[in-house]
Amino acid sequence: MIDPAQLMSNTLVSVGLRVAFGAYIAYMARKFYADPTGYFRKSAPKMVDLRLLEPVVRGLACFCLWGGCFIVATAIAVQIFGLHGDVLAVVLVAIAAIATWFLLPQQQPEDRPGDRPGDRKDRFEV
To answer: Are the beta carbons of 66 and 96 closer than 8 angstroms?
Structure first.
């Protein structure tokens, strides 16, 4: 039987898991940023769709996208290149912010869910 601690101490396994976790967070955050209330419409179709929630969910999704980019950048810098220090932390924060900017999905105003024909019109406008 394989000891889990010994398996996780392998550099390739730990880097692979961290990069996969960070990439998954970034992937899901992009989905939430593109359609902030889409998950709520699919899981609770009778819930009133509040436009007030969209900027909050979009802001949280942007933060999660930055976090996913930061996890990936940190895993590569620390585990593969062996870099450490305060300057590296500032550089990684900046790299994650730049990567977040490039990974944000572009959304046109006419692409808003609810504005297309056939979408639910029982929205509560604030």
So the answer is: yes
- Phi, psi of 123, rounded to the nearest 5 degrees: -90, 150
Write out the two tokens for 3: 């000891």
120 vs 113: CA distance, rounded Å: 9
- List the end-to-end C-alpha distance of the chain, in Å, as a whole number: 59
Which has more confidence, 90 or 81?
A: 90
**Spatial contact of 51 and 126, defined as CB atoms under 8 Å apart:** yes
37 touches 55 (CB < 8 A): no
DSSP at 46: T
Q: Which residues pair with 123 in a beta bridge?
A: 49
**The residue type at 96:** A
* pLDDT tens profile 5-31: 888 888 899 899 999 999 999 999 999
